[in-house]
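Weekly sync, protein design subgroup
Attendees: M.S., D.O., the rotation student, P.L. (late)

Item 1: inverse folding check
M.S. brought a backbone from last month's batch and wanted to see whether the design step gives back something sensible before we order anything. D.O. pointed out we never logged the input encoding, so this time it goes straight into the notes. Structure tokens as presented (753 positions):
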């Protein structure tokens, strides 16, 4: 029996092959997703987040605050919406505001007062005030200058009479014509004065009859309704970028700041979320930190009231403020990522977190959950929910076309979209997922996580489900099958995934070229991953590595290129491991220069998952033994032990493409459960090479294109698979090489002495 492996180890590897059967057993209750029942409770429509759902129910019970911390796509926004829905159904009638908020002038032009009143009573009061102002307006006498006009007319008529008499007298007394001229001039002046009074009277009557101007001081006193609960019935408001303007409110700019036309302060006031909404949902707490609103929020959460201020240092509204407080008894629902949480812990010694925990809870959203029968059922439920959502989208988009033109019209119009003929029986109707298609989604969630868990980052899966649906519809398939899901996965790549695919295509030719041009000594195929910041998904790719170890006076290791601190430390660890091995086998040690090159890794390398690959490459060059270029390897080397690394499923999956001509991979023993999802909907069998156990997966039907995966506990297991050498053979050849190098160095020293 092997010194490294025991009977239980071989038994565990065989048990891995039971995973597809276990998954099918967990899905035996359904033939397809038509058998899935969607729960009535809205909170239960969010899957996986059991702890978060329990916390939400407790918070809803006591109207507490809530902070959800987790990666994007784990359901934070969905849970916030469900929280609002549940609270609306349970306590909505009691927490929904009942009073209107009215504003009216304060002690001067820069102050306003607020009042809370019953909406109906407030409407009646304002209507009554308007009626009284209208009555006062109508009771005012019409503007008239008739008295002045009559006086002018009398003077004019007197002057006209005097003029006529002076003309008659002038016949006998010529001096009387002087009076005629003066009287005529006066009569003309009085005529002009009369016309001037009439024009002034007409202008005043046309200017709103002269009444509105006189009553503006009264109309400016009418209260302004800033919030009416009969119109604003929503319990929750979503604030994407919280600041004083949209959280507190403020005062609008006054375009009429001079004369008698300025807008009263209460008609320029507006309210923010604090005054109007019982629940405030802040989707990303990082924006609140950027806008520097945290101190104001903390004060309002503590006092539950605030004074409305202009908020600007200059311009209209700078000096505006309220004389009394506005109520602000809000429930705060906020979301953030882990980096923001760390900042909150340091900011003000965690004052915001303290406010949340004082009357609420900080909820950690799971990024991965164990694969249990219950969670597998929840995946089927989630798929069914997305199918229902797609069905509603079809109805909204194509409902009228279906009603007027039927299936044939939909097919004809869809052909214009796809640019090709569709099957005669084409019907734009959602398809249920078959059991195997559901298993394919479970497989994908397993691939995107590790340690036998399902990824909770579900948002990227939505597009995969919908694309698989549309693919099945175009194929006129009865159900969505695994092939549709696999095609959808190829289409739905994030930016990092598209880059990874291009790199992998390049690496295919690169690897073939290296293999054809070298003797494979010192060359090894490592495995790397690219992380998608958007979807959280990892994309694997082969990482060719070339290692050299040369006899020299200095004991150094170089790894040129853009590599991170962890990768540099891993390289140093490999050097220490080789030195320790030489000491253990009693080989004389000579100073060695070790050189490691990540071939065309232009984006840089970080992490220690290539440390075992570096070790294999260096040992290969040291003992001049070729490495099998058909196998990839990953793992973190500590001494002789290979430890687990991340992204193993994606790393292995990335080299299973038959065009890459790879035949297998060596993975750490601790990552054995990461191979389970690769067994879904495929053929496989148990294999063993010497003492190292493994699983052979057939990539094509009829047990064609085998791909062997070996589970290595130590680096000697990797030597066995990649170089075909046992532990003793490697140590003996290392000892022999060390002796030759020592002899060489002595000869060189004697020659120059």
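Designed sequence read out in the meeting:
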């Amino acid at each position: 029996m092997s010194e490294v492996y025991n009977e239980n180890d071989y038994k565990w590897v065989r048990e891995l092959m039971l995973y597809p059967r276990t998954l099918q057993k967990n899905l035996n209750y359904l033939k397809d997703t038509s058998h899935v029942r969607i729960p009535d409770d809205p909170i239960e429509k969010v899957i996986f987040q059991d702890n978060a759902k329990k916390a939400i129910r407790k918070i809803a019970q006591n109207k507490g605050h809530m902070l959800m911390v987790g990666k994007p796509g784990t359901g934070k926004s969905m849970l916030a919406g469900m929280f609002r829905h549940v609270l609306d159904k349970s306590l909505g009638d009691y927490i929904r505001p009942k009073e209107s908020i009215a504003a009216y002038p304060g002690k001067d032009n820069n102050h306003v007062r607020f009042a809370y009143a019953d909406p109906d009573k407030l409407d009646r009061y304002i209507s009554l005030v308007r009626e009284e102002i209208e009555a006062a307006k109508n009771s005012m006498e019409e503007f008239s200058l008739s008295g002045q006009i009559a006086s002018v007319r009398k003077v004019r008529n007197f002057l006209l009479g005097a003029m006529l008499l002076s003309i008659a007298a002038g016949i006998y007394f010529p001096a009387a014509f002087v009076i005629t001229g003066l009287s005529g001039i006066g009569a003309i002046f009085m005529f002009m004065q009369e016309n001037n009074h009439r024009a002034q009277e007409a202008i005043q009557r046309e200017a709103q009859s002269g009444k509105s101007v006189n009553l503006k001081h009264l109309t400016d006193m009418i209260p302004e309704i800033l919030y009416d609960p009969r119109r604003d019935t929503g319990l929750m408001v979503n604030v994407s970028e919280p600041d004083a303007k949209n959280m507190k409110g403020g005062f609008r700019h006054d375009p009429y700041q001079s004369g008698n036309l300025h807008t009263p302060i209460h008609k320029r006031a507006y309210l923010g979320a604090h005054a109007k909404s019982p629940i405030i949902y802040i989707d990303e707490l990082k924006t609140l930190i950027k806008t520097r609103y945290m101190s104001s929020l903390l004060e309002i959460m503590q006092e539950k009231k605030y004074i409305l201020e202009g908020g600007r240092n200059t311009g209209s509204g700078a000096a505006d403020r309220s004389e009394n407080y506005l109520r602000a008894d809000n429930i705060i629902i906020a979301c953030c990522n882990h980096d923001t949480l760390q900042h909150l812990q340091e900011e003000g010694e965690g004052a915001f977190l303290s406010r949340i925990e004082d009357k609420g809870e900080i909820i950690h959203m799971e990024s991965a959950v164990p694969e249990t029968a219950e969670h597998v059922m929840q995946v089927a439920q989630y798929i069914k929910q997305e199918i229902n959502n797609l069905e509603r989208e079809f109805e909204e988009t194509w409902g009228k076309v279906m009603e007027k033109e039927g299936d044939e019209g939909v097919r004809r119009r869809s052909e214009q979209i796809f640019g090709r003929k569709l099957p005669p029986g084409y019907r734009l109707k959602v398809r249920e997922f078959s059991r195997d298609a559901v298993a394919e989604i479970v497989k994908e969630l397993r691939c995107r996580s590790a340690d036998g868990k399902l990824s909770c980052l579900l948002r990227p899966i939505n597009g995969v489900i919908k694309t698989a649906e549309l693919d099945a519809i175009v194929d006129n398939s009865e159900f969505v099958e695994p092939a549709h899901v696999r095609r959808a996965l190829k289409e739905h790549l994030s930016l990092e995934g598209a880059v990874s695919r291009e790199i992998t295509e390049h690496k295919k030719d690169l690897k073939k070229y290296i293999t054809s041009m070298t003797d494979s000594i010192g060359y090894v195929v490592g495995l790397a991953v690219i992380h998608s910041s958007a979807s959280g998904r990892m994309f694997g790719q082969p990482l060719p590595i070339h290692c050299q170890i040369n006899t020299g006076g200095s004991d150094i290791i170089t790894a040129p290129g853009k590599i991170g601190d962890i990768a540099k430390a891993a390289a140093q660890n490999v050097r220490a491991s080789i030195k320790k091995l030489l000491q253990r086998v009693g080989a004389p040690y000579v100073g060695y220069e070790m050189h490691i090159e990540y071939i065309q890794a232009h984006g840089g390398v970080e992490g220690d998952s290539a440390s075992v690959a570096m070790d294999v490459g260096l040992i290969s060059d040291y003992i001049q033994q070729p490495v099998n270029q058909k196998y990839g390897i990953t793992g973190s080397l500590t001494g002789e032990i290979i430890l687990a690394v991340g992204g193993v499923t994606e790393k292995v999956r990335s080299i299973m493409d038959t065009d890459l001509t790879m035949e297998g991979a060596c993975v750490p023993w601790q990552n054995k459960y990461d191979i389970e999802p690769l067994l879904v909907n495929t053929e496989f069998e148990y294999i063993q090479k010497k003492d190292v156990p493994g699983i052979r997966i057939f990539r094509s039907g009829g047990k064609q294109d085998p791909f062997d995966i070996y589970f290595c506990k130590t680096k000697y297991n990797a030597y066995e698979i990649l170089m075909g050498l046992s532990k003793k053979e490697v140590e003996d050849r290392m000892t022999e090489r060390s002796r030759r190098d020592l002899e060489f160095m002595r000869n060189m020293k004697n020659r120059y002495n």
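Discussion: Residues 414 and 422 are 8 Å apart (CA to CA). Residues 373-418 form the longest helix (46 residues).
Action: P.L. to compare against the previous round before Friday.
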